[in-house]
Amino acid sequence: MSPLRARVEKGRLVLDEPTALPDGTVVELVADDEGDDLTDQERRALHEALSTSWKSAQAGGLRPAADILDELRQRQ
């Protein structure tokens, strides 16, 4: 099951997500802010990749996501 999204409205959590759960189902929501398990080396590599990607995007090196997904599906 994918996570549910809620917003806070007047101190209450308000869900506006479709679900197949039956009425009356109790759902536990957990604030997940535990960070990640990246090592310092992995974090540096991630930030370098993001920086490279951003520079490429600024230079016009963008492709529609649909094209990339189609390409990935063809590799299977």
What class would the helix/strand composition place it in?
alpha+beta
Morphology = extended
Number of helices: 2
The major beta sheet can be summarized as: 2 strands, antiparallel
Instruction: Give Rg in angstroms.
Output: 20 Å
Give the strand order of the largest sheet, numbering strands 1, 2, ... along the chain.
Answer: 1-2
Summarize model confidence as the mean pLDDT. 88
How many strands in all? Answer: 2
As residue ranges, the low-confidence spans are none
Care to give the gist of this entry?
By secondary structure, the protein is an alpha+beta fold. It is built from 2 helices and 2 strands; from the N terminus they run ββαα.
Notable traits:
alpha+beta; two-stranded antiparallel sheet; 11% strand; 76 residues
Structure description:
There is one protein chain. The chain is an alpha+beta fold and 76 residues long. The protein has a domain at 1-31. It has two helices and two strands; from the N terminus they run ββαα. It has a two-stranded antiparallel sheet with strand order 1-2. It is extended. It starts with 5 loop residues before the first strand and ends with a helix.
